[in-house]
Design brief:
single chain, about 120 residues, alpha/beta, Rossmann fold, 5-stranded parallel sheet, about 40% helix
């Protein structure tokens, strides 16, 4: 079983994803912003992160900058989950090593799971 940390301030869009990943055999944790997620990373380190970019307190790009600055966390694959796949924030996230961009408007849970499994191994 792989652990996945989903970081998104919008439970309406993220709860179905969290449920799907859990039903597919992943252990899923959830944070509503980057600061909350960083606090969680001081405990268990996930196998992958699914990250929204537009959030209050600490947005996704700021979170990714911190994540990549620490050797303990810099290897974690990060997948962008965004309503704005053409934004400048996506380019910045890709420059920081984000693995893949999933547009929320083209929601395909099977594709998300397949890409995560390909990157970190199956459930």
């Amino acid at each position: 079983m792989k652990t996945v940390l989903v970081i998104d301030d919008d439970p309406e869009s993220s709860e179905p994803l969290v449920r799907y990943l859990a039903q597919a055999g992943h252990s899923v944790t959830y944070a509503t912003n980057g600061q909350e997620a960083l606090a969680m990373l001081n405990g268990e380190i996930p196998d992958a992160v699914i990250l929204d970019l537009q959030m209050p307190q600490m947005d996704g790009v700021a979170f990714l900058r911190v994540l990549r600055a620490y050797l303990r966390w810099d290897h974690i694959p990060v997948f962008i989950w965004t309503a704005y796949p053409e934004s400048a924030a996506v380019v910045r996230a890709e420059d920081l090593g984000a693995c893949h961009v999933f547009p929320k408007a083209q929601l395909n849970f099977g594709q998300i799971k397949a890409v995560i499994d390909q990157c970190v191994g199956g459930a």
